[in-house]
Design goal:
114 residues, alpha+beta, four-stranded antiparallel sheet, 4 strands, 32% strand
Length: 114
């Protein structure tokens, strides 16, 4: 069965990639995973020093919408890393596609140990 994959690319403010990556790994990703989000990959992009990639998988478009609404309005996010994350971002672009488990598996990044 196909799932919905969201590919988000961030253009970060010059020099903020290391800070953004640290906040993502230490705060944002654990929060997303605790909220039930399947984080496929989150890492700096290879093509530009101030570019970052976040890939998430969902069961459906509706589940994606509910999940993101719940997460991005939660006190944990709003009172947690949101301000620091947003301060690093110049802009971002999102693409949403269907993908099977084989494609998702090939994109999957091994989790960083806690």
């Amino acid at each position: 069965m196909n799932r919905i994959v969201e590919i988000r690319t961030y253009t970060l403010k010059p020099g903020s990639t290391e800070l953004f990556h640290r906040i993502m790994q230490e705060q944002s990703l654990p929060m997303l995973r605790a909220a039930g989000t399947d984080v496929v990959a989150a890492r700096p992009s290879m093509h530009a020093p101030d570019s970052y990639l976040l890939i998430r998988a969902y069961q459906s478009l509706a589940q994606r919408g509910r999940s993101q609404d719940d997460f991005y309005t939660s006190p944990a996010w709003l009172q947690g890393p949101r301000e620091a994350v947003m301060a690093c971002i110049e802009h971002y672009t999102t693409a949403v596609i269907e993908a099977d488990d084989a494609l998702i598996g090939s994109l999957r990044q091994a989790p960083v140990p806690a």
